[in-house]
Amino acid sequence: MPGHFPVYGATGGNGSKAYQCSDCAAVITYSDRLLSIGDVHRHLFVNPFGISFEFYTFASCPGVVAHGEATDQHTWFPGYQWSFAFCQNCGQHLGWFYEAVSKDTIPRGFWGLLVTHLLTR
Ligand SMILES: [Zn+2]
To answer: What's the pLDDT tens digit per position in 20-67?
Structure first.
């Protein structure tokens, strides 16, 4: 259908697994919102300081807020700039929000949330 695009995160539940903040247990997103970037939705990157980060990429995270100025410095995803992402309930740093620099880039944005900062059940 022309002009019709899938709406990510319009629903939760339906048997999908909930991901919760490791600090306050607030539900922040669901497994049906996992989004593959470069064919995988689980990533491992090492920052310039040699610290490794393992995280999932999601199309939407209703319980997370992005904060701060976006930057493309040391970005792990070329074409995307990032800002910090925090739990909306307790403010714990959970990961990053990636936003496409060019409006022609698909997806327009996605979330990268640290495996160690999520609880699943
Ligand atoms: Zn929290």
So the answer is: 999 999 999 999 999 999 999 999 999 889 999 999 999 999 999 999
From ligand 1's centre to the CA of 105, what distance in Å? 31
Instruction: Return the domain boundaries, the chain.
Output: 33-115
Residues with CB under 5 A from ligand 1 (ion): 21, 23-24, 26, 87, 89-90, 92
What residues contact residue 111 under an 8 Å CB cut-off, 6+ apart?
29, 57, 58, 59, 60, 61, 64, 85, 95, 96, 97, 98
* Spacing, Cα 100 to ligand 1 middle (Å): 26
Whole-prediction pTM: 0.85
The string of pLDDT tens digits covering residues 74-93 is 899 999 999 999 999 999 99
Distance of CA 116 from the midpoint of ligand 1 (Å): 13
What architecture does CATH give domain 33-115?
A: Beta Complex (2.170)
